[in-house]
Amino acid sequence: xxxxxxxxxxxxxxxxTTLILLSIQSRATQNSVAEVSRNRMGELTQTFASWLERxxxxxxxxxxxxxxxxxxxxxxxxxxxxxxxxTQFTFYRDSTTSSGDEYRIATRYEVAQKGTRTVDGTSKPxxxxxxxxxxxxxxxxxxxxxGSKGVSPSSLGYFQIDLxxxxxxxxxxxxxxxxxxxxxxxxxxxxxPFQNAQTFPRAxxxxxxxxxxxxxxxxxxxxxxxxxDCKGGGWKQLTDGTGTPFGxxxxxxxxxxxxxxxxxxxxxxxxxP
Length: 273
Prior knowledge:
Strands 1-2-3 form a three-stranded antiparallel β-sheet, with no helix packed on it. The chain has three helices and eight strands. By secondary structure, the protein is of the alpha+beta class. The longest helix is centred in the first third of the chain and has 55 residues, at 2-56.
């Protein structure tokens, strides 16, 4: 009898020890999964944010003097929970090839729902952004939109683009009121790719504001094309779009001659005004 009692006690102790070890192992696995999920979510967020800043930062690049509105109005129907999801945004820049051919390049973001994911016990839609491009040679016609030229993580919780005025208020009909647009605000979230009870946070939220290149007439710098454009014996000062002079009196000759004369021709002597 004592023998059976001792064996029963040993079995119970062994089972309890096994359960404790399994519990420790399960918690360690959950923590490891949560850490991998957080790291992956952070990596996806940082990569996407950097990509957006570089891409949108080129909006209006190489536009000619006086050109404005290097963008179309964002298309933002209301999503779930009253959140506006920007489903389409198109912006433009110019480019010149090594052979001197000029092109206008349109970049379009298209955002579509990719499914749902449970966050804090609630099923929520997730989205993915697809980037497309097309070109138009100077004086020509637009070609067709390309296939995908880049995609976001397929786990965006939301994606919003707003065009803001100098007071950071959204501009109504920004394409028609481009002179009021001062910056672009981009907001998005990335939901963790996989979750368990230890996953926190379950989503990242990012907001970034980027200045829009000013293409207004007030920002245009008048520069001479040839030395013949430099009136008054070659001592004409450059002016901005408002007619305000600036710079060295010899800047006109300096720029028109390809920089060969420089500040040595300044009326105040070399390096002088």
